[in-house]
Amino acid sequence: MAEDKQQHDRRLFSCTTCDFTVDYHYKGRKPPFANCILLHEECYVLKDPFSSSGGFVTVGGLCSMCNRDVCLSNGCSLFYTQRFCTNCSVKHIQEFPHELQQEIMHKLKS
């Protein structure tokens, strides 16, 4: 019975760019288990399994343009005032500062 409830309560984050998938505990800007923390964006957060003092790990967020779930890997997304997936950052590259445009182009080459 308890296992059924855990399966029902299970929340799964899946990056739409890569194969990264992980269970998460909270989606939002203020994790209830992390005191005095306000994130700059709505994120997928899991409790840090190695911390006893309310630590957390941010695993992903939403692209601010296409609203797709993306992990925080450099190959999948970037954060510049908001989160952008790789596809949207390439599609709208001219809207980013020159230095960031160079970084986006470098990511494409690698």
UniProtKB/TrEMBL annotation:
It comes from the Eukaryota. Residues 13-104 form the Cysteine-rich DPF motif domain. Belongs to the CDPF1 family. PANTHER family: CYSTEINE-RICH DPF MOTIF DOMAIN-CONTAINING PROTEIN 1, CYSTEINE-RICH PDF MOTIF DOMAIN-CONTAINING PROTEIN 1. This is Cysteine-rich DPF motif domain-containing protein 1. It comes from Biomphalaria glabrata.
